[in-house]
Specification:
D-Maltodextrin-Binding Protein, domain 2, five-stranded mixed beta sheet, alpha/beta, 9 helices, Arc Repressor Mutant, subunit A, 3 domains
């Protein structure tokens, strides 16, 4: 048999007042049923909680220890309905965000600051994931929101353009491309050794670059999946690389940048991505809070 919240409230009232009559009045009940509540509670607990005689009521050592936990349990019980309402409305809860490494160079910090301001009681869990991992995680309900690269399955996912930026050529310091005084074009890159995006692990950037600059296989010296790795290889003089404009924020010595001429001035896109079937109320509140950040 378990004790009840009414028994706990009765015990706390008696412990506060150290008088059954005053405790009963505080609880708007008569003294006999209060005494029976305390007796039942002591039987359930298996210890005497109060010493009482005709003159006074005092807490036993067991009663003093139990009082601390009784107060804690009552606070939890009283706050649980409000917490449930807040979680149901999305005002509290957790939003698990998957993000590409490159998104951390620019928009991720600003996005998190915005969520903290608008939804201070919603916790955010972060996981670095490439887009295909985010898609899998969303379908498996392992993450709630992605910062991912298109394209997406429009039936399964909702998406919103969050950010777009230019494509840059990263080159070793002193390289002739950095002295052009204008955006680089495909002809400027003919014969250059290239540190290229992986066609499997960084397919979005691979397809984007390949659509603008024809890269001969013999000119590809390395294929990697992370922009930061590319920049370190460029700094080592291994070749040039194609990176989003936000990568220029990374202070890597020995690397310079020149804009790449592209049919679309800012071809690199980053989208908010979520499963249309998500049942997390905090996700929908987060999307509403982030709506002003949506790119036009």
């Amino acid at each position: 048999m378990a004790f009840t919240l009414e028994q706990l409230r009765g015990f706390v009232a008696v412990a506060d007042e150290l008088h059954f009559g005053r405790a009963a009045a505080r609880l708007q009940m008569t003294q006999p049923p209060l005494s029976r509540q305390i007796q039942k509670l002591e039987r359930v607990v298996g210890a005497q909680l109060l010493e009482r005689d005709n003159r006074r009521v005092t807490l036993t050592a067991a009663g003093a220890a139990f009082l601390v936990e009784a107060r804690r349990l009552l606070i939890l019980a009283d706050s649980a309905p409000e917490l449930a309402r807040r979680v149901s409305s999305g005002a509290s809860g957790v939003v698990r965000i998957g993000f590409t490494a490159a998104s951390a160079y620019g928009v991720l910090g600003e996005l998190l600051n915005g969520l903290s301001r608008e939804l201070p009681d919603v916790a955010v869990d972060l996981t670095e994931m490439v887009t295909r991992e985010q898609v899998t995680g969303l379908l498996k309900e392992e993450v709630d929101l992605g910062l991912a690269r298109p394209p997406f399955d429009e039936e399964a996912f909702g998406s919103r353009l969050l950010h777009r930026e230019a494509l840059l050529v990263a080159a070793p310091a002193g390289h002739r491309l950095l002295e052009l005084g204008r955006p680089a074009v495909a002809a400027d890159l003919a014969g250059e050794p290239v540190v290229m995006h992986s066609p499997t692990k960084a397919k979005y950037f691979y397809d984007l670059v390949a659509g603008v600059v024809p890269i001969a296989a013999e000119n590809t010296v390395h294929t990697v999946s992370q922009v930061l790795t590319m920049l370190w290889l460029v700094a080592a003089g291994r070749g040039v690389a194609f990176v989003p404009a936000s990568a220029a924020r990374l202070p890597i010595e020995g690397v310079g940048f020149v804009r790449l001429e592209t049919p679309t001035p800012e071809p690199v896109e980053l989208h908010l991505l979520w499963a249309r079937s998500s049942k997390n109320p905090a996700l929908w509140r987060a999307l509403a809070a982030l709506e002003p950040r949506t790119a036009s």
